[in-house]
Specification:
The chain is an alpha+beta fold. It contains 13 helices and 16 strands. 38% of the residues are buried.
Amino acid sequence: MDLKCLSVVLPKDIDELIQQGCFEKASLLVKDRLVETNDPLLMDRLEFALLQMDQIVKDYPLSKEMAFEKCAMIDGFTMEEMDRLIQANHIDARLIEGKMMFRHNIVNGIVKCAPGYAHRCPSMCMDQDLTDMIMTMINDGKDHKRFTVRQWVDLYRVDQPVSIWFPLPLLNDGQTNLSIGHSTLPIVSIGNGFGNNNHALVQTNDHTFDRVELSYSIEIHRFYGSTADNGEYGQNDLNECPPQIVFKEPLNGLVHALCGSITSDLVKSRIIYDYITTHFTYQFQPSYITIDSLLDKMLSTHKGDCGMYALLMVTMCRIAGIPARFESGIYVYPDGWTIHDWMAYYIQGKGWIHCDPQMGSEAYMHGRAMEHAFFYDHIDAYHIIYNHSFMDDFKPSVPCLRIDPYDNQLPEVQSQFASLDSTIVPRGFTIDTMV
């Protein structure tokens, strides 16, 4: 299935039913049109619509009552507060078959996105830890960490041969001494660490393993005031990458209005960073495959997650003629971890400069000026880089459309005929050690 099909507009009657959450009726119409059409791109778009509806149902599993029960973690939380937060769009909800449904991470969304709630759920607040980590890096001029990461995939529901791509850190940008530890299965192939992504491929043809694991250790070195690496940029770092990185209005006009006749790429990059981090706020998003245009959604709602922040800054920099690339991996902090996206821009004479606009935006929202300035041209040693691009192919390539076709942060599991999502194959990782 070609993701370029997202440029095809769905038939109006189908699109209206999907927007209303009438997925059963929409699915029947889609199947009828698949029989009627001979257009291969439209067929892909219709098939993708079926996949999107299926994923939306999985992404919004909670009724309002179930969602409110989860919010008991927030001290003194009431149903009236919940209704206000829904009205203010601080809670992500979606109408599905006539019922308002909610995402499983509703508490994380409220604490992270709604002003004034972090102190009512202190177990989920890491503001002071982050401030301390950045101050240490600034004062010492550098930061160094060594992590041991254990990734896992549960196969107890699988009764067919599968291939598993475990993501691994890249070996540049201050990331060194990657060492593979325990692997439940023999490694079929492993990347050299210097491409746009890196992974280890394992395969199993029997059903004797309920859980497959692979662990690695990596050293991360970050330096305050230095650039990311000495690599050059390529033409792809200036180009569109449909369907998500596209040069169109209103972004073209916005970049022109912000940057005008300014010739310095360094000045333009700071103007773009300041605009993005002060005009948008964070909101957790459903699976990216359920969103036709990530940037259209962010521009219309003025909300987005870390990947949307990164994509917006990459796109605006490229429109301004600044080479830019999407970056992603995992972010580790003292009490946990999360998958995370950021970006880098290229300045002649300096090289690639890491930038985390989402963390910069969060710092701005909470009045932390030092952190806001830091994330314009730095990341810390808790960012572990897996990817240097967006929508990049695996090597060896995967036979089917990936569960996340844009990124590479969690294990990808595929049978001969399809990707297997987390409802069939639970997956994740833990940080075993951090020094």
